[in-house]
Amino acid sequence: MNKKHNHALIIHETGKPIKYMYKKLYFFNDLEDEAKEKAREWYRNGNSDSPFLSDYLHEITSEMLTEAGYTVEDLEMFYSLSYCQGDGVSFSATLEKGNARYFVSKYAFFGRDVHEMSMNVEGEDLTTFESIECDDILEEMREIARKVEKLGYEYIENENSDETVDDNINVNEYTFTREGIRIDADID
């Protein structure tokens, strides 16, 4: 077993030390199963917003739009993926394809809702600069948003899987009490 011994100095808000505590600390792999579950719970609660989710959603949306033949500028993502009403993915962007430019935007009156139905598209012909019909383009953008939403939920599920959580806890060498309570200790 890879048990580590360390101590913690408890400091009162006045700045004076009030108590030394000696605790036996454990790395994740050394914990019993019940304590590992508690450690996973701690990790998941502190990492509820995946730090790379925004980048991932932006990247796959840009790729899907490019694969659909669009030149993409000023892509901005809006999302909420918490399994709640009004959740989903939408985006705004300036897109060009052929002789047309499309302005994809989020409806302001939808408030906090960010699903694909909160999107709108306006278009112009680049040769005449006249407005063009965009119903088909709007449906295409909404379909892309639905696909990105599905991939976003899959990403979150993967990030919260026991295997990924365990790997992240181990890589960061977090330490815990025998019960699985996180103790921040600088172990050299």
Shape: elongated
In terms of DSSP E residues, the strand content is 25-35%
Strand order of the largest sheet: 3-4-5-6-7
> What are the secondary-structure elements, in order, as H or E?
EEHHEEEEEHHEE
SS-based structural class? alpha+beta
Distance between the termini: 17 Å
Radius of gyration: 24 Å
Mean pLDDT over the residues? 83
Work out the number of β strands: 9
What does this entry show, briefly?
With 188 residues, the chain is α+β, with helices and mostly antiparallel strands. The protein is built from 4 helices and 9 strands; from the N terminus they run E-E-H-H-E-E-E-E-E-H-H-E-E.
Itemize the secondary structure elements and their pairings.
Blueprint lengths: L3 E8 L5 E11 L5 H14 L6 H15 L3 E10 L7 E10 L2 E7 L12 E7 L5 E2 L2 H25 L2 H10 L3 E2 L5 E2 L5
Antiparallel strand pairs: 1-2, 2-8, 3-4, 4-5, 5-6, 6-7, 8-9
Helix pairs in contact: 2-3
